[in-house]
Amino acid sequence: MHTDNSWGHTVMFQHSTIRSAVCQRLTAAAVAFLLAGVGSTHAQQANRQPATASPLITTDPSGLLQTNAPGGSIDSSNPFFQSFGSNGRSCNSCHRQAQGWSITPDELRQRFTKTNGNDPIFALVDGAVSPVADVSSVYARRIAYAMLLSRGVVRIGMPIPANAEFRLTKVDDPYGYASARELSLFRRPLPSTNLIWDTAVMWDGRETAAPFKPPMDAGIDHEDLLESLASQARDAILGHEQAGAAPGAAIIDQIVDFETHLFTAQLSDQDAGQLNHSNGMGGANILAQQRFWIGINDVLGNDPTAEPFDENAMRLFDDWNDPNAQFNHDPGSRARAAVARGQQLFNTLPIAITGVGGLNDATGQAVIHGTCSTCHDSPNIGNHSVALPINIGIADASRRTPDMPLYTLTNYSTGQTVQTTDPGLALRTGKWADIGKFKGPILRGVAARAPYFHNGSAAALGDVVDFYNTRFNINITAQQKHDLVAFLSAL
Ligand code: HEC
Ligand code: HEC
């Protein structure tokens, strides 16, 4: 039997060490071993037992997900796992290791069934479709928590700001609650991992203390980020956890310290095998070494090193390029070639970017001839390397489904109206031009945390590709879609 026992360890490898240490293939025995470990972690967490070393590797729909954490274990005694408020929730209610430190509808449905809808995540305040929904029976709770159970989204309540350039002129809320005093916005929990590369905190950046400025090299000089995350943690405890008062700075610092030392990425793929096999650069240990600073490889010229933008932002699987893949009889090699083609498409497939608020208007270019990496430009990470709130149209009325509220906003000075399911940044700035703007999130470990986009409107990675295909008329082929999904699944 040939198992790789180093998987469970968290060591800050040098690249050369990784390359020589990772030539093992994933064996059935190894998977069985890992699965046994994963099962016991969940049981331990459910019983709220004291801190024990927990495996850093969990299963997800396309293979195994790895989290790199200090000391080689997840410190479950950290206040991240502790409840501070009245509803029994902790950060871990909505940020779970196995779901890429977010939540998924599948796991939530299991939690609902196990507890008859009484797990702390099922709380009226923001778990339900409205804070006054009927939750008096299991049946009522199934309806009240339908948005968590179907899309894994949490209800964020936010008012139209006093200084707004617009007013709310019509509300179509299927749950009969939203008003100008509190819009209901259904949003996916962003992962509480890989945070040292965040350039904006929250989908609308509302917890970003001040625009992060270079150098802010990740892990060296990132006071602005730590301050933002501390404020975010306090607000989460007061809001999601319904605490009467936030805990002191020492506790908040422990939470921030915990979450900023986690790195998460896909480790192996059921088709392509181990993602650091044959000089692949997948997995969380290599990710933890990723070079980054605010503005790195920025397409808009914000890189403080003044180096020109390189559209090849993703370089994880360069060594897997295999032009003769179709003649290869080994399915693993063929799958690796598909991942490499997907990476190439991400970096180079031409996209005529039009009508993106915050990008086309900001640069004065009606058409930007770009690629996926124009917006996802942070090397091997996939967010934008400076805060770039943009409107790609996810919240547009044209994409509204009947389970989402629809808001009509009217501009005070021009009388123009716009319909949206989520005004995004505009609820923070009050600016008409900011309606529908959100950040592009970090893309690592994305396979473990479907559905996608701020409102969970794309059920799977194929639906993400379909969105871009229709939004920008790319004319993507079935093969290209397959390859892009293979690549995204390997992140
Ligand atoms: C009820 C579910 C819930 C709980 C409990 C919760 N969160 Fe979140 N978290 C969310 C949602 C939803 C978002 C995204 C909201 C938005 O952007 O408007 C989020 C966003 C975040 C982000 C932003 C990540 C980024 O890249 O911008 C961090 C960090 C975070 N949460 C950490 C925490 C911490 C720490 C706690 C505990 C103190 C916590 N969360 C508790 C649901 C939750
Ligand atoms: C014009 C800029 C832009 C381009 C081009 C672009 N993206 Fe995005 N991407 C974004 C933004 C902004 C979001 C978040 C939008 C939201 O949720 O409202 C996003 C979200 C995503 C997500 C969802 C992540 C999550 O955690 O929910 C994936 C996956 C993704 N993009 C992949 C791609 C791929 C693949 C391409 C190329 C086919 C691409 N993007 C092209 C800006 C862009």
From TrEMBL:
PROSITE patterns: CYTC. Residues 1-43 form the signal peptide. Residues 337-491 form the Cytochrome c domain. Keywords: Heme, Iron, Metal-binding, Signal. Gene3D superfamilies: Cytochrome c-like domain. InterPro entries: Cyt_c-like_dom, Cyt_c-like_dom_sf, Cytochrome_c_Peroxidase/MauG. The keyword Heme applies. It comes from the Bacteria. The keyword Heme applies. PANTHER family: BLR7738 PROTEIN, CYTOCHROME C PEROXIDASE-RELATED. This is Cytochrome c domain-containing protein. It comes from Rhodanobacter panaciterrae.
